[in-house]
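Troubleshooting: if your tokenizer reports a length mismatch, compare your output against this known-good record of 218 residues.
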Amino acid sequence: MIRLFLLVFISNFLQGNLSAQTISFEADSIHLQRIPKKLKSAKQFLGEYWLIQGDTLRYGMPPKKYVKSSKNSRQIDTLIYKDLRKEKPDTIYFNAQKSGAYAFSYNPCCGGFNIKALKTQKYTTPRFRVKLKNTKPNVKYLITLGESGMLYRTKGVLRRACYSAMASNLVHFTIEEIEICETSDKECKSICLIKNGKVDDSQNFEYNIESNKIKKIK
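Known-good structure output:
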């Protein structure tokens, strides 16, 4: 099972060309003023950082640039995020197909941070398509994005749905082999199922995880 922070800019970048792209990232510290200085969390958030092509970015530092060569136009892009409360860093996935400027902004409600486009001042919306290789016949694969999920080979784009308006716009991403629950004799998980790009309200979708051995994204 892949448990990574996922940020996909596909919705913003589909119209990009194949020339080199430069993405500027900054850490907006304005919302950190809402954390009482006496709290340990203030020091924790001031100490967290992002690694952008080897350069460290912290709150209060000048913006850092991410440059993507036209030779790697189809490659998925990554940043590293280190939360001091966790032992291991998280990976942010995105798709840099168009130059632009973005800001990491502390989420005063729920912790963590959001990402917004500086040109529009709007927060990004995670959405993407997945293509798996070497899949097993007669096996069902569930792709999840936060609180929502989509069965593999379902038409449409997986987008985030069924979430709190105050939650961070960075979410966990998983790929799992599952068994759909058809009886109530098993302890099952439920998720907001997406079909054809929309929430499917026609059924209460529940499942069990059979395997979580998929570990790579390309």
